[in-house]
Amino acid sequence: MSAGTKSISDVLSRDVSYSGEGISVRSLEDNIHQEREVQDGKVGELKLLRERNVEIQSAMTDELKKLRKFSDYIDGTATGGGFWAGFKEMVSYIPGLKSIAISKRSIEELLKQQYHVSARRVKEAAEYVDTLKQSEQELYKEINRINGKIVESAENERRALDYVLELRDSKAELEAEMQALEAGSVEARKIEADIDKVQALLSTHSSNVQLYGAAENRYASLKDNTRKLAETIRNLGQDIQQYTTAASIKLDMASAQIQAIGRAADASVVMLEMKKSLDVMTESMNVTTQFVSDTQVFFRQNLDKLVDELETFDESTTKMLDENLKKSKEIEERRIQEAIEKALKRRAEAGGGAGEPPASPST
Amino acid sequence: MSEMNQLVTLHTQSLREPVVTPYLDRLVEALRAARLNNSFPDRRRLQGSLETMQKAMAAKLYEQVYIDARAGMPNMASFTRVVTDHEVASGSLERMSDTATYEARREEAEVYARLLDKRRYYESISGQPYAPLDEQRVQLRRHDPATGTAEFRIDLTKLDATGVYVRITIELTQVAGTWRRKVIDLDADGESAAASQAFHATVYRNASFDAEHLFIHMHDIEGVSVDRVQRGVVGPVLFHLPHDQGRVVPAEPEQANSRMAHAWQRWLETTTTSTPELMMSFQSDIAARDVREEKSNDPLDSLFSTQIQASERARYDNVRQRFPFKVFKDRKFVVTPGLEDLVRAVCEGAGTKNLVYRMR
After folding, report:
1. What's the number of domains chain B is made of?
2. For the residues B256-263, what does the mean pLDDT come to?
3. Among B224, B246, B266, which residue terminates a domain?
4. How far is A284 from chain B (nearest CA, A)?
């Protein structure tokens, strides 16, 4: 008897300490809510970035089409119709220029403005890549933190369960002892008191078993969502980086061509204007000859290469942009579907769970 | 032979370290030493752009600087990078975390170290001047409503398609009349002026031509009387940048100026220097009523009148008699010590006396 009493006394007086802050239904809800707020913030950020990404990609596709028109125009000069036939059509694609007999705007200036706009757009898109990479890192750090909480909850759950099992065994022992005693006797009353103490401890710690178990599951689910979010952000970042890198390189390589095309296009207008008012200088000026020969040399030497490059840029980059747009939409659809499934599942689970009082241990 | 001497595309070379730093350093120094007046592009803004390129390369935000192989100067792609960086800087700084955050986390992941460098770069360029790709201003100098005349000054600064950076100043008088289409409009209070689209386009398209041509072209516009056309040109630049694998030089200098290119080629064949060398030239080209003597003091560019074929002389003289201007051309140079003799020899050979500033 004394050995058993000593054992039960140990169990009753044990200080079971759980790591971390204490847990309750309220505190668990609050913690999960805080974690969800971090996630929601990132989802909101991601949504804005993806909208911006689609907008930028659409704008870049439009600008590619404009470049393609210039490429088609250059191709047309080789076949016939003369300079002006193709020229009029080409300038009609330039914003702000509807119809011209002789262009009122410098083509070189317009092309430079277009180039500047495109370069600015690419730069803005590239800035988002760093924002996304930073968000991704922050989410991985969040995942590490949540993992810490999962491990802590699992350890606490095990600690609580071990103690609950000990309490259950102690209670069974006490009840067996009670059977051997006379009802109402002093010894029986003492054992009854101990049974009540054990029961109180069982209530508390079995509740902890459930709470820590629930916390572990919920943090695990949160971690999965956070990881998916981090992967989505990484994919978006790679998506943007791919086209900004390609677009940046092409713009860098195109700057000289654009200036040369603009100058060549303006040259004809200049020649016509010069011819109107400057008979002798139109005939004699070296620079006129230089313009004509420059234009011819440029087209002869670079036409095929330029058309090839622009077409390759057009076809492969247009294809890539279209694919990216399609993928972005697929990701969006998937995300919406997952959110709906999760909401439905949560509703189903809410029918029974941690909010209910713990079941009484068997008597 | 260094691959940086190859063209990567039309008229474009790609300069990388270790030659970019000495190249940009000397360009900045040359601009400072040139003592440019306001007939040239704004020195402060142009220097600001070059300094932005220096900071961007130091922060490793770009791998290269693209230059025009003819003019030896940074090309439109390089200047546009500067413009767009300035344009996005404030927005990016607002979205980024603060410096302390990146400093605390730079060891955690590569992205934080890179963002720290980028943040510092944007902070360093915010509010600093930079050169525009194109900029035109029209200023009213005098307005006489009684006679319907107004005097204007038009300033066009542009990065020319030939690779040089040019500022064109035109002073003209416009006589208003209900039957005349105005090239420059005054607003209702008679104070603010804007050039018509067609006039602006004419000036823009002819920006590559010399002042003489531009004067005649503008003066022929109905209702306009030109007093002065002035061009201030920054460039071309010649450079010699030695490094471990050889040296880097402009790939197409003959397309900028054949006279200088010829002398330059001979210098390249004989030089043994291992220090970076650079020459930058600054041309003044004026066609104006108040020029006393028609003359070219530019060793690289003669007067057009001296190049006319004999068979065209009479017609040309006839045209010139209609227009009340004379032409004066000049050029000054800024050089590293190793190129001073070359430039002085070119000037001496052309019979001109030019300012040659020496960099340290």
Report:
1. 3
2. 91
3. B224
4. 7
